[in-house]
Design a protein that fits this description.
By secondary structure, the chain is mainly α. The protein has 5 helices and 2 strands; from the N terminus they run H-E-H-H-H-E-H. 73% of the residues lie in helices and 8% in strands.
Length: 169
């Protein structure tokens, strides 16, 4: 009988324990993550460098077109049309090359950002497992938490872990 009462007491105590549930504010987490900031800054630099390159090429092409316009005034019409066709073909090739380069920059930026998102998710999982959380939900824009008390918000702890600091318990 004593064993049965002890077992029932254990079951009662075990069932009374609350499961640990938390949430993170995704917007705050991502905005505060240093690696994400570095990826964005790197992408911004590459994007600005590409814009300068594209503008420079465009100006050079416009200058070439103006020179050709001046030179063709004294040419026979068929030669002038041929020269403009060559210039137009050159412009199309440059445009295609620039478009491909821009797409590559965007794809690389997206791959790096996807890597950051994966790292954040893994860190949230690790933090939850290490700290006994049964669930950690996402809040912020597009999140699944419509309300959560401040005690359940683990955003700062996860952000600290992501940025290499010691997680605040």
């Amino acid at each position: 009988m004593k064993k049965w009462i002890g077992f029932m007491t254990f079951l009662l105590l075990a069932s009374c324990q609350q499961e640990k549930i938390g949430y993170v504010d995704n917007v705050k987490l991502m905005d505060g993550y240093k690696k994400k900031q570095e990826v964005e800054a790197s992408f911004q630099l590459k994007s600005e460098a590409f814009t300068r390159k594209r503008d420079s090429i465009s100006q050079a092409f416009q200058f070439e077109a103006q020179q050709l316009q001046t030179a063709t005034e004294s040419m026979p019409k068929d030669r002038a049309q041929e020269a403009f066709a060559v210039l137009q073909q050159k412009g199309q090739m440059m445009g295609q090359q620039l478009q491909q380069e821009e797409q590559q920059i965007q794809q690389m930026g997206q791959m790096k950002m996807d890597s950051v998102v994966t790292e954040v998710r893994e860190t949230i999982q690790e933090y939850g497992a290490a700290n006994g959380y049964r669930f950690i939900f996402t809040g912020g824009e597009g999140g699944s938490v419509l309300y959560g008390d401040d005690a359940s918000d683990v955003t700062e702890q996860v952000l600290s872990q992501l940025n290499g600091g010691l997680a605040k318990q």
